[in-house]
């Protein structure tokens, strides 16, 4: 595996691969890699000639400086894991390489319809930052296929909207959520959970599972209320728990009226913000 910190270095080599007609799969990450990320890498390796992974902690998608500062950075270990899983190129740039003209310029794309609920109101500017960085990384890598996780449901929905609206050539592949044995969704932030809180963080998975088991038995409103109660244990503070249409991300009134339904939640577990979701129907 080759590692590049500059755009020019990566581009030179990718151009050679493209000239040979090789297909390129791309997995953008913020590093502190775990088996969730590796599931994307493995699929990309399986489906493409060349797999590129980026590790870039993108400042423009953090709305709290403290969260950005505390974000775990483990580049050497990340590189080892990527190599073991067959990744060909690691792109690990700094902000200047990604944003040579400054980070202010953003992509001209209306994402307002998809950011009305859930993460949108709770993390102002977050998705604008995500769109900006993914767009920029796609310009650099020009992949045939882009691999993202269902873990960030609203994120991949917005990127799917971007690819479609801007008629970009890249195809999006979404991979299921990889969980720890006890149900907690893997996340780079999990290492920051205090042991007593970590043990009880399974409550998100339990609440989502309860909702899935009851989606056709109780109303979405009742299930949201019950789910919020379930995750409101000591040291845990829910930001939202919503049952939404998987296409529009709009809250639903009756499960019978929708063919694709997902429950999404964000909960503060002590000082760590956890997100999780579960596809209920579809
Ligand atoms: P991040 O480094 O958190 O920005 O995540 C990079 C990519 O990995 C995103 O597309 C995430 O949705 C995906 N991802 C993160 N956690 C998981 C997980 N537990 N299972 C599957 N994919 C994941």
Question: Which labels suit this protein?
Answer:
39% helix; 2 domains; Rossmann fold; Pantoate--beta-alanine Ligase, Chain: A,domain 2; binds adenosine monophosphate; 282 residues; alpha/beta; 3-stranded antiparallel β-sheet
- Specify Rg, calculated over alpha carbons: 19 Å
The count of β-strands is 9
Class from secondary-structure proportions? alpha/beta
Residue-averaged pLDDT: 97
What are the secondary-structure elements, in order, as H or E? EHEHEHHEHHHEHEHHHEEE
The hetero molecules present are:
adenosine monophosphate
Give the overall form.
globular
- For the largest sheet, list the strands in their spatial order: 1-4-3-2-5-6
In CATH terms, the superfamily of the largest domain is HUPs
Biggest beta sheet summary: 6 strands, parallel
- CATH topology call of the largest domain: Rossmann fold
Number of helices: 11
CATH top level of the largest domain is Alpha Beta
- Give the N-to-C terminal Cα separation: 38 Å
Query: What number of structural domains do the residues give?
Result: 2
Low-confidence stretches: none
Helix content: 25-40%
CATH architecture of the largest domain: 3-Layer(aba) Sandwich
Question: Beta fraction of the residues?
Answer: 15-25%
């Amino acid at each position: 595996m080759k590692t590049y910190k500059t755009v020019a270095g990566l581009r030179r080599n990718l151009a050679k691969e493209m000239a040979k007609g090789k297909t390129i799969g791309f997995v953008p990450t913020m590093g502190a890699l775990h088996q969730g990320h590796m599931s994307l890498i493995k699929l990309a390796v399986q489906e493409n000639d060349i797999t590129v992974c980026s590790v870039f902690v993108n400042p423009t998608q953090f709305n709290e400086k403290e969260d950005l500062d505390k974000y775990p950075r483990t580049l050497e270990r990340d590189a080892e894991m990527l190599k073991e899983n067959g990744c060909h190129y690691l792109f690990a740039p700094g902000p200047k390489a990604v944003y040579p003209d400054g980070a202010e310029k953003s992509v001209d794309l209306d994402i307002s319809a998809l950011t009305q609920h859930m993460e949108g109101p709770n993390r102002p500017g977050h998705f604008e930052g995500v769109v900006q960085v993914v767009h920029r990384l796609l310009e650099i890598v020009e992949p045939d296929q882009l691999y993202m996780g269902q873990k960030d449901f609203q994120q991949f929905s917005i990127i799917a909207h971007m690819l479609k609206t801007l008629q970009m050539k890249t195809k999006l592949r979404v991979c299921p959520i990889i969980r720890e044995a006890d149900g907690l969704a893997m996340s780079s932030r999990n290492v920051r959970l205090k042991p007593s809180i970590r043990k009880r963080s399974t409550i998100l998975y339990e609440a989502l599972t309860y909702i899935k088991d009851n989606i056709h038995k109780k109303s979405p409103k009742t299930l949201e209320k019950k789910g919020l109660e379930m995750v409101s244990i000591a040291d845990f503070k829910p930001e939202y728990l919503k049952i939404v249409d998987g296409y529009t991300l709009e809250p639903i009134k009756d499960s019978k009226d929708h063919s694709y339904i997902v429950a999404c939640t964000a909960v503060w577990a002590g000082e760590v913000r956890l997100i999780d979701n579960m596809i209920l129907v579809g």
